Structure formats: structure tokens, C-alpha cells
């Protein structure tokens, strides 16, 4: 029996070593660390050794008068124990098979490596003056990087995406507050959980994912973008603004790769998800970068349309451009909902609207260079009006100027689309009727709008004159007052 179990340990150990060597050859020798750190492998090996030693002892104890407590001294019982251990060794092959898969298959290997990431590895160390130099330490994230690079070279797309995901998990484990931290600790600024972390080293590892995330399929690019957006949100909440600004540049590179590769506008949804976090932050530099990115997206698309000459416009161009402009409205909503000062609110509103109007002018000028631009302008303005109407539920109640500019935007776009002012009024009223403060402020600004005599066109390219817009706004104000009176009567 001991001989049979000795054969088991030889076969199992050989298979483990061979499979680990194949994995190390395919990806990186660093994967061999997982074999040496595996508790399951150590327990399995210990069980085999215990079984062999027990069989040897039982065989010797029955011929030599040596005994140990709890060990059988009867032949039949000794034979039963030996047979049980041998049967256990047979069944352990099932466990060995599962353990082998966990130690050598790429997805399990990457997951185990990401789980081994610890905060202590990335603590910033201050070297004392005159102290001896210390060697650098290899981190689990470095192992994942090597697997990612090798998988990309081998054309293994599945492993590349797994590596990007697990690299993000490892980074997120360090940046995200631990569950044991108390809520009052998380409210500190800057948050204490990242004070001593070497963020530069951490993001240097993640930069490998960004680099290779742009070199594959659209699915790979999208996965990298989503993970990168999560890292950005975490950096902003941790008050690491300089690092966040740098990573915004990487987000832009990923966005360009996505647009160049397939023209897929799903990247804009990631900017939408990020906009609320940026709008709530005191740093205006973050918002300026996001606005600049959208302006460059428009410039890139306009450049592509100009390069196409006088060919017929594609409906996909309308979708992409309208989504970009609607993202500006999304930013406006998030700015208005933020709890920043009224002066900051005004400043950011002006920044967003100025860039949006400039982009629309550039788009329309390019549309005019192509045959039959009317339907495409109509599509763009319709989407823009829908988003503007929806934004009425978030208008600021503590700053007049943003509301004035908002009313002008709604009126100009609605007039260009030949919309009925009563219909526009009902749509606006529907959005704000459940918020008495916003309803009151909007109604007041509508009534006072024409008396200020300060009208300045927002979308000059739409060529709306003052008399038209004044009449339109007065009609909206009259209809909303009527709707308000009806509601009061009821």
C-alpha cells in the first residue's frame, strides 16, 4: 500500500510540476510562485506523506513491539486503515485535478494573483539619510502585467481581457477603502486610506493595461475604458486631483482608440457616468478637461466629414454628434445639481454652454458643405431639445444667469424646429411641477426675461431674431402661468 501511495505522490507531483512549467513557459516564470504559495498543494502533499508513513508504521508495528497511542495493533484493523488511506489517495486525485486547474489555467492564476495584492506592498517608504540601499520588491501586479503582455503577443484575447480585469481588481483593492474603516474615517479629506500609498507606482502598473487595451478588439477597448473610469472616480474621491488629471489623458486616448476602431459611441456613456463626480468636485480643471475632450471629439468627426467632401451624410454621424452635444447637457445638469457656490455654478455653466454653442456652429457649417443637410440638422436639434427640456428638472435655484441662458437655449432650438410654445411650456411644466422651488424660479425668470432687454443669441448659427424669441418666451410664460392656475384651482 505504501508503494502504491508512493506512486501516487510521484505521479501527482510530476503532473503539477509539468503543468506549472508549461504555464511558466507560456506566460512568465513568475507564475511558479503560485505553486509554492498554494496551501491546497501543501495539504495534498502532506496527506500523501502522512499516508505513506502511516502504512510503514503499521507494517513495522505488527512485527516489532513498538506502539503509539491511537494506532491499531491488530492486523485486520491495520489492514482496514491502510486500505482507507489508499482509497483516500485515489479520491484525492479528484481534488488534485481541481487544484491543478486553479493553479495553472490563466483565469484562475490571474484571479489568485490579484487576490494576493496587499496594501503593504504599495506603502510609500521613506529612506533615511545614510541608510543602505534596499532592493526593489516585485508585486503581484507585475506578474499580471507579464501575463498580459505575453498573452497579447500570443494572440490570446481571452487571457488579455482577463489580465486587464484582474489588474484593475488589484489596483482597486488598494485605492478603495477597506470595509473595516468607519464611515467617519472615509469622510476625511484627504481620505486616510490612500495617504501613504505610492499612487505613482500603482498607476504605473495600470498604464500597461491602458497601453495594451487600445491594441485589441472593441470589446477589449471597452473593458479597459470602463475599468479606467472606475479608477478615475476613485482618485477624484480620494482628492488625488493631479493623478486624476493625468489619467483623464489616458481616458481620452482610449476614447480615440474606440472611435477610430469602430465609431462606437459607447465611450460617451462612460463620460456621462464620470460627469457627476467631476461636477461635484471643487477643481474646475477636471471639468475643463472633460469639455476639451468633447470639443476634440466634435473636431475629429467634423474633420472626417470635411474629408469626405460633398458625399451624402451618414445617419451614424448624426447619432455620434448628437450624443456628444447631449453630453454637454448632462454636464450642465450635474453642475446645477452640485452643492458648489453660485459663482462657481455660473462660471461652469458659461464654460459648458460656450463650448456647446461653438461646436454646434462648427457642425452646421460642415453640414452645409454636403447635399441635403436639412434632415440632419433637424435630427440633431430634436435630440438637443429633448435633452434641454429634460434638464429643466435640475436647473439651479440660486443663480439667475444660468437660468436665463437655459431659457434662451430652449427657445432658440424650439423656434428652429418650429415647435408650438404651448407644447414646450407643458413639457417644461411637467418636469418641474413636483419641485415647487424650481417651478417658482423658472416661472419667475420666464416672466422677467423680456423686461431685462439683455438678449444675446446663444446659437448664432440658428439666426433667431430678438422679436421672435421674445414672443416665444412670453407665450411659454403665459401658458405655464395658466397651467399653474389650473393646478391651484384643482
Which key terms come to mind for this protein?
mainly alpha, single chain, 20 helices, 490 residues
The averaged pLDDT comes out at 78
Could you say which structural class the secondary elements and strand pairing correspond to?
mainly alpha
Q: How many helix segments?
A: 20
Please trace the helix and strand order, writing H or E for each element. Answer: HHHHHHHHHHHHHHHHHHHH
Largest sheet, described in full? none
| Unreliably modeled segments | 179-190
Identify the overall geometry. Answer: elongated
Q: Which percent bin holds the helix content?
A: over 70%
Give the end-to-end Cα distance, rounded to a whole number of Å: 93 Å
Keywords: Membrane, Plasmid, Transmembrane, Transmembrane helix
Transmembrane segments: 40-58, 78-96
Pfam families: DUF2254
Protein name: DUF2254 domain-containing protein
Describe the structure.
This protein has 490 residues and is an all-alpha fold. It has a domain of 103 residues. Helix content is 73%, strand content 0%. α14 packs antiparallel against α15 and α18 crosses α20. The radius of gyration is 33 Å and the shape is elongated. The N and C termini lie far apart (93 Å). About 2% of the residues have low confidence.
